[in-house]
Amino acid sequence: MKLVVVSAGLSVPSSTRLLADRLAAAVDGRTPVDIQVVELRDLAVEIAHNFTNGFAGRSLAAALDAVTEADGLIVVTPVFSASYSGLFKSFFDVLEKDALAGKPVLIAATGGSARHSLVLDHALRPLFAYLRAVVVPTGVYAASEDWGAEGLPERIERAAGELGALMRGLSTVSPAKQPTVVPFAEQLAALSPSASQRRPAQSSPSGV
After folding, report:
1. CATH of the domain at 111
2. Are residues 126 and 189 in the same domain?
3. 181, pLDDT greater than 70
4. What's the mean per-residue pLDDT of the chain?
5. Which Pfam families match (predicted)?
6. Does pLDDT of 45 surpass 90?
7. Segments in the chain forming alpha helices (H)
């Protein structure tokens, strides 16, 4: 399976890239994957040109293809003005609109203060929900004081486990065994005690 890591860190070294690497290593430790890192810092000029001329340069095109073909994504951004960075958003703006549909994504961010931790739920999660990605329940935010402190390693491991489980699950679903869609009315009827007495219990839909 292929795991692509998108890092929007700007400095070298970068705490954003450090968090991205730790998350990728945690996923690989649970579910062996081929890891490819996309450094948006190196693509800034091509991203800007893509907005003005409509064409992706060679490096940007390769990065977009990697994200589209990935079995799972880790996306990490520094916090700017209480949200994701403009470079981070611009990259996903030039991505094809259906590229992330159904794709497992682990969201993460770094910042100077714990006060910005809500960026995960107020900015990143809505963005990837709009792109129809499957966002893992645990997002990871690392403030400056989190490095070397208790809590961050546990959040990294929990989020990595959730992403790995989604990647493994989706890779085992063949086209001939797609999840069965049960109408909402039937789901409600199945939950009724009287309904369960009148007819045999229905088997649960398969899938992840």
Report:
1. 3.40.50.360
2. no
3. no
4. 86
5. FMN_red (PF03358)
6. yes
7. 15-30, 44-53, 58-69, 86-93, 119, 125-130, 152-171, 184-191, 193-198
